[in-house]
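Fold sample X.
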Amino acid sequence: MKRWKEATDLLNQHALTLPGAELSFRVHYWGIDLQHFNNPIHKHSFFEVCYVREGSGDYEEPDTGMIYPLRKGTFFCSRPGVVHQIRSSSGLDLLHVAFEVNEAHSAPDAVERFRELASHAEVCVSDAAEHQAVALWTALLLPDRESNQLSASYTRPIAHVLLSAFADLFSPRAPKAQVHVRPADYLIRRAKLFIRDNLDRPITLEQVAGYLHLSKRHVSRIFSEGIHESFNHFVRKERVQSAAHMLKHTSVPIKTIAEETGFGTVHSFTRAFSQELGISPARYRNRMS
């Protein structure tokens, strides 16, 4: 079981002023209520965000007539100036934090996001147990064992990220722009990394296909269509580039470079290097020295 009092004391000691490059917060209080029943109808001049760990109840905004059901895994946001009440007949296990944006030390765009939240927030977000905000808040709670206590030096940055995450959590749901990544792009990146990490040994199309769990034909196609060069030419180019780096920055003998870049013999190395760069390895080293 978490040590609730210690967690609250630490947060209220170390996480009340949360500066950031784009967004800064002033926190009024952090709290944990293990048995929260009914509170009076009231309002705040700041945001108060609560998370229901256990129990059930209602969150009501009398002026708007809105009543939101509360249950385990629900976040809800009391907005500045909005009259509200939390009700529960059985008791709620709540985490809560009260805060406001320090507008004088925040970027205009960041300030505007929270101003919009104050007017148009999605007040109640149910089934949010898997949201990143839960993991962040949990990280701020101290475990039972003394050796596992969260250092005070980490408390403030984590708290800042948590409050920043509320802007997305309570923003009215809108379609998010989708970033489409072609599967071939991911496969090419993996293939390139495999090749570059294994230049000192023979590399065949069959080996790379096996590594990616694809057919040789498929791998050949993603090279020709994705980077517009053949598999064999890419491997040779990578070997030559690695060899050129060694020639320029080390005094390793050419024979050793030929072996370490997978050419095997000086003859094969010299021929491939000259074809690719138009100069022999020996002359290249002399020119770069």
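Fold sample Y, listed below.
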Amino acid sequence: MLISHLRARVELRRQPQLRGSPAVIVDRSAGKPLVADAFPEASGVVAGMTLEEALSRHPEATVLEADEPAYRRVFRQSLTALQGVSDRVEGAKPGTAYVGLDGLETLHGGETALVRALREAIPHDLAPRIGVAAAKFPAFVAARTGRGRETVTVPPDAAAFLAPRSIDLLPLADDVREGLIRFGLHSMGAVAAMRMELLIDQFGNEGQRAWELCQGIDERPVVPLETEEAVVERIALPFASTSLDLVLAGVDTLLKRAFARPLARGRYASRMDLACLLHGAPPWEKAFHFRR
């Protein structure tokens, strides 16, 4: 399942008045402001582009600060909803999920009804695209090539389905992809037609992986999410709080509240996620992992 432009869809949910207007979502975590996502109206603007370049194309665009904690929360909620349909749900990068379907068709009354249940588990405004295949990579490509909310099912001959697709969809390092292009291999069919030994000679293990993927061979299993119980606490600090001592006191209060919950009594926490929403600045989030 693929939720394309997850960040833009979340922002449209929060700010519906921006619908129909160009907007770019900017990530400043690396120092230099880079585009993380863009609304459809901001044509020609792609992720990774500098803010300066994006505004040169659309000077009237609204600039939104990326709220990665919020995007991750929405994606986690989507994964949890999918777990209500299948016990094998894997979250890849935000917006991409793999769901094991084999063995569930009878329970849901057939594959069509099963796929419908997956789609209905996700809010309509996220417009999920679904690809169905016997392996992860063909399913991902099917979802990427689908239009709107349609479901694309890969036929038994996955290599024939993949053949006309661009090698840009292959999860390869940039230098390997550029090397394939230098050899005139622009489509997956062209890569699949090569002898695997030649690709291994040129690109090593990555060459073998590229050949196998273009053949529709992907033996990676769906790795189910680990079941976890979460305790969530929130606190609001006084407006314009700049004191570190006040922030630390707020964190201490949150911890005391969390461990006072009946669910947490007598138990250990494996991880703590601390998120902070700031006025006039991008939000931030940090995870703390505890030893057993």
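Sample Y note: The radius of gyration is 22 Å.
Also: The longest helix spans residues 244-260.
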